[in-house]
Amino acid sequence: MSGPLRGLTPPSGSGHWGQTPIAWIHTPFGLGLMTGAVYFGGTLYWLVQTMTTFGGLATPVAALAAAMLVAYLSLFPAMFAWIQSRLFRALGTRALLLAPFVWVATEMGRTYLWDGFPWELLGYSQVTVLPVAQLASVVGVYGLSAFVAMVSAAAAYTALEQSARRWQIGTVTAALVLTSAAWGAARVRAQTLISEGTPIRVAVLQGNIPQEQKDEAYRGDRGLMDAIAQRYIDMSREAIGRGARFILWPESSTPYYYEQDLVRGDAVRRLAREAHVTILLGSDQIEPVRPVAMGKPPEARYYNAAFLVRPDGSTGAIYRKIHLVPFGEYVPLKRILFFVGPLVEAVSDFSAGRDAVLLPVAGHMASTAICYEVIYSSLIRSFVVRGSELLTTITNDAWYGWSSAAYQHWEQASMRAIEQGRYLARAANTGISGFVDPYGRVVQKSDMFQSAVMVADLHFISARTIYSRIGDLIGWVSVMLTAAALLATRRPRVQ
Question: Quick check: 73 pLDDT over 60?
Answer without folding.
Answer: yes
